[in-house]
Amino acid sequence: MTSVITKALAVDDLQLDYRVAGKWLAAIRGVTFAVEPGESFGLVGESGCGKSTIAMAAMRYLPGNGRISGGSILVGGRDLQTMSDDDLRRLRIKAVSMVYQNPGSALNPSLRIDEQVGEVFRLLGASKSEARDRTGEALRRVQISDPVRVMRRYPHQLSGGMQQRVVIAMALASEPELLILDEPTTGLDATVEAEVLDLITKLRAETGTSVLFISHNLAVIRKMCDRVGVLYAGRLVEQGPSDELFSEPRHPYTVGLLRCLPQRGVTKDRGALDTIPGFLPPIGAIPTGCVFADRCGLVQEICRKEEPILYDVSPTRVSRCHFHQDAPNLPRVVPAIGTGIKADHSVKLVDIDGVSKTFHQDGHAVYAVVDVNLEIAEGETLALVGESGSGKSTIARLVLGLTAPDHGSVIELEGDAMAPSIDGRPEAQVRAVQIVFQNPDSALNRRHTIKRIIGRSMTKLLRVSPQERDKRMSELLTSVRVGSQYLTVRPRNLSGGLKQRIAIARAFAGDPKLVVCDEPTSALDVSVQAAILNLLARLQADKGVAYLFISHDLGVVRYLADRVAVLYLGRLMEVGDAEQVFGGPNHPYTEALLSASAEVEGDTRIRLHGEIPSAANPPSGCVFNTRCPRKIGEICETQEPPLIDMEPGHAIRCHIPIEELRRLQKG
Amino acid sequence: MVTDSTDLKAPDDLRRRRLGLLFRSRTFLVGAAIVTFWLLCAILGELITPYDPAGTAADILRKNLPPSATNWFGTDQIGRDVFSRVIAGARSILIIAPAATLLGTVLGTALGLITGYARGILDDIISRAIDAFLSIPLVITAMVALAALGPSTLGLIIVIGLVFTPVISRTVRAAVLAERELEYVAAARLRREASAHIMFVEILPNVMGPILVEFTVRLGYAIFTVITLSFLGLGLSPSTPDWGIAIFQHYALLNGGIWWPVLFPALAIASLVVAVNLVSDGIAAVFEQ
């Protein structure tokens, strides 16, 4: 152990309050941890547990209504809280840097990249021309291949991944002792995320910078950090080396969090996901006893009376649990029983036949969806995967009738063609196709009560009498597991998970046959996500509804999907049963997506470089040829490969013969 | 299966919380106090004035008297008590300005909802027409219209209301443009709600905040516009106790050192406009939180 002076970051018994409606509420209570020089330390926990608050406090960036009421934070032995403003400024220039979640808002939109990055070097004392040279160097270091071109651009002209590289370049410009990364890859596509994480690993090896890494994503933390602290309600509940902590968690909260994630090999028919019951205590609530007691399956008398100390689990690990040795035996909340129903693909519900969508923007044609053929059978889940800009959401909007497809496209429901716009569709078709949106905050009218939101859909779609409506509404609420006491409430008084249940109830109000789920859990915490996925699986089994499921999270897709369609630049690259797509052989693009999702760590990894080309000017031949790691030659640039059936139900659009793909992807 | 019942966050009624904030805002309270004072004057009028604001036949003998214990604000050029006329003058302005603003807000909201929600060609045509209309100074438009209609309270209300409509419709349109992209609107389309339902039942309640703020801001301008028009001699009959008319009738006397028939109505105008703006700022601050 190093002394406090030499630690990159030493947080000791930190107490932090926020002033809410005139009262000081405790947000962080007695958190202690340290980041050793050269170490990468992770903080995990669900939203509201205090991760970002600690990061802000470490930079002395707390908002005006926050105060540190006890304990200390030392950066390289220096106390920021008592420092003069000048010293603090110098420290922020030289010793500590921070990278935030949203690079778009971290960069000044009206400054060009060279001015923006150059400013950092100017502050460090470089001359104008020197700053320019060093900016180019800094950008090259974060693997921007054409720095001269990038330097002349404004932030909005760069993609999200590129923006985050620029932010990282700025953060590393001063070679800081400590780099704080607050959800640095959360808004990025999985392929870009993988690249940025690789970059951070590489830069860390080069510079030896200490890192405080904050994320809600357990897989990312596991991959990136030497040691991890788990936060819950402003308390550190477990801490230790990340390999040990994630493979043998010793606090019921950590155990619960890990169980919420869909495990490999578990699908909806074979097992339900476990969840963590109950809710995070509100900020400021100080329970006597253990903070987690109300939600813990191992809770005993003593847990409610006496707060556990940080028990030493091993020389390097601590856990704030009276029964830490029993933590691995935490009883399941949800029985591990799956729906037991395998979708049979026999009855075709939706037929998407030769569907294209071209948008016209400033005289350019943007080919968002190009000649896509897909079928959705009754009661099955078809997942659409692909990076942002691949056309997933556009296909959903075409099926819903919110956007009209190009001429010649055919979308059939039970054999009947559907009008391009919702306004031209008969009532039965309107009823049959509904949607659950990503963000329940904007999907529910915030001025309407829950009763009005669900009731209106029923009246409008089913044309039922008020009595019938009320009867159906209470049945529906029961089936999404929401109590009827919420009927008179407006959405803002509900938690994120409850709001999403209401949104699901609304989608089911008219007894639909197909529900589009557009990233329905990506705005939610993992424990809430697990409950929502269970609910979707259960509703599907009970009502025989089909899902068109859009997600960037392949773990979630693997759990819920019966079939998977992979899209790139609006074209279908691969489609097949979930087992086939996850088992391989795959299209090289699918292979890259699978390898980017952090859960398949250790497999032969291929990386996509560069950016998704513009849909206004797609590459010739195979559209993926500019980024394909397995490109075989000229044919890829000149000839678009056909979608070939490799085995029943599994088709791939690639020039490489199937046997060759199988051989290449085996290792 | 478990029903989540512990999930109801402490019932925080937003409306009540906003009212609470409003009544703790000093800006709002000061503004509201002054507006309330003028409202009382407008309602009670002759009941509380020391003299008859319309004047009596004998008044002419006491014209242009400076402020004194008997006539606090002095008397005007035909001997009427300025103090009484300032009190009574609150009535015309506090009827015309709010009524005109309300008319403008209702029409402007409808227009803003339609242009913001429909977009496309309809929006282009209406928006360009509004641009053209707004390039002419409002007072001039109003003057021309009033000259054609002839002076009356109703005429003033309609003209000012119509003149304000395009301005308000722009604010509402901007709010609607942001709102229509939210998914709850798509959800309404997916159950095939009529456009009118989506505009007035789904979107309108969500843009009430900016509309309310716009209403109070416009109210300040409306007071100004009414005063300007009556100062220019357009609008009300010259015998009405009205601040604008009083200034119009007496400003020529300023050179002769007779300042009281002009200063006190002017102060009244200033206090009312400032008060309305304070109220408006207070409300805006609460909605922006």
Strand content of chain B: under 5%
Secondary structure tally: strands of chain B: 0
Provide the low-confidence segments of chain B as ranges.
1-11
Low-confidence region ranges of chain A: none
Q: What's the end-to-end separation of chain A, in Å?
A: 41 Å
The overall average pLDDT of chain B, rounded, is 87
Gross morphology of chain B is elongated
Main-sheet strand order of chain A equals 6-7-8-3-9-10-12-11
Helix-residue proportion of chain A: 25-40%
Sheet having the most strands of chain A: 8 strands, mixed
Keywords for this entry:
heterodimer; A: alpha/beta; 8-stranded mixed beta sheet; 24 helices; 24 strands; B: 289 residues; mainly alpha; 11 helices
Short description:
The complex is a heterodimer of chains A (about 675) and B (about 290). With about 675 residues, chain A is an alpha/beta fold. Chain A is built from 24 helices and 24 strands.
